[in-house]
Design a protein that fits this description.
BTB domain-containing protein; P-loop_NTPase; elongated; 8% strand; BTB/POZ_dom; 366 residues; five-stranded mixed beta sheet; disordered C terminus; Potassium Channel Kv1.1, Chain A; alpha+beta
């Protein structure tokens, strides 16, 4: 009982458009499956009928505003659903977070020497983007030219002459010799057990800081001196060029570590028992948001710390963007020529200590 459909029974769009053109009438396509064009056919049929009636009843005012049959919009596939984008909590590789970076300082560029000789390693960019006080501290220019010791004077003079001869070949690796502190051969070595500077080296470091660095006792509370020196890396064991900051006797190790960890993560461990000491250190170092968080914990209003943490991350994100645009505290500079260069630089940057070691060796060769 079913009549088979022949090829001639199917009207192609080209044939329909040709017939509509010969008759001088609009052409519309419809699809019962997709419900496309059905409303267009009815609406424009009514417009065509009213337009024809307007020629016969031209005096009727309600027919003057009738539009002519409109063109049909092309059939488009349905809009795909929006892609669900899931942003991970951290984009760092290997599950590393700022907290792990602080506990295991890879490629540190600043060390804090406490009054008892203990060392705490950190990274300038984390502290400077989280605290205006540390940003001002690391922005101090150390431009004094140190005097050489008698036994090293002749050798260093020959090295400076050799560096001048190589200046034309090392224009892209410029290191200001005036800020490099040339100390005696023995650098600041730390004990692997407790990371404590030997007393002799501690006294030597104080003398170097007072002679070649800058005194900070009048600049702010908690800081004594700041200078540049080669310090043994706690991870690799190699000498690295770091900023050395000696701290006042008021700065105790555990509360100071908590303050630095807060500047890395933006969170406060409320289970610590020395909250009062943490608040005192935060007051001295002008980390006022941490002091407010401690006050909220002591007043049993810890729920208010969520807003402080949120504002901390927003402020640090804006500072990081500003640092990237201005190149503040930048450790390396690369010129991107192609995608291969970007991939090579990314591979190099993922290896801890690779770029910094190359930069240090280049600075020493100059």
């Amino acid at each position: 009982m079913v009549i088979p459909i022949k090829t001639t029974d199917i009207l192609r769009p080209e044939d329909g458009q040709q017939i509509a053109q010969e008759l001088g009438i609009p052409y519309y396509e419809t699809s019962v499956v997709a419900q496309f064009g059905i409303k267009d056919v009815f609406d424009n049929s009514i417009r065509a009928a009213l337009t024809a009636r307007r020629h016969l009843h031209f005096w009727k005012s309600h027919l003057k505003k009738v539009q002519k049959p409109l063109l049909q919009a092309p059939f488009l596939p349905p809009k795909p659903p929006p892609v669900v984008i899931s942003v991970p909590e951290t984009l760092l590789l290997g599950g590393e977070t700022p907290a792990t970076l602080f506990s295991t300082p890879v490629c540190p560029d600043v060390t804090f020497i406490l009054h008892d000789g203990q060392q705490i390693f950190a990274h300038r960019v984390y502290l400077a983007t989280s605290s205006s006080k540390f940003y001002d501290l690391f922005s101090i220019e150390l431009m004094q030219k140190p005097c050489m010791d008698g036994e090293k004077e002749a050798d260093d003079t020959g090295k400076r002459t050799h560096r001048k001869e190589q200046a034309g070949n090392t224009k892209n690796l410029r290191v200001d010799d005036s800020i490099i502190v040339k100390n005696p051969p023995v650098s600041l070595r730390t004990s692997n057990s407790n990371e404590t500077v030997n007393p002799t080296d501690h006294e030597r470091m104080i003398q170097v800081a007072l002679k070649h660095g800058k005194q900070l006792s009048k600049w702010a509370r908690g800081f004594l001196t700041i200078h540049l020196d080669y310090i043994e890396d706690p991870v690799t064991g190699r000498d690295r060029y770091m900023t050395v900051v000696t701290m006042d006797y008021l700065i105790q190790k555990k509360p100071f570590q908590t303050v630095l960890e807060y500047l890395y993560t933006g969170y406060l461990n409320e289970t610590q028992v020395d909250l009062i000491e943490i608040a005192v250190i935060a007051e001295i170092l002008e980390v006022f948001d941490l002091r407010m968080m401690v006050a909220n914990v002591l007043n049993k209003e810890s729920f208010m710390n969520q807003e402080i943490t949120k504002a901390f991350h927003v402020r640090r994100t804006n500072r990081i963007k500003e640092f990237l645009l201005k190149g503040t505290f930048s450790g390396m500079t690369g010129a991107m020529g192609s995608i291969c260069d970007v991939e090579m630089l990314s591979t190099t940057g993922n290896k801890p200590g690779t770029s910094d070691t190359k930069r240090e060796n280049a600075g020493k060769s100059q």
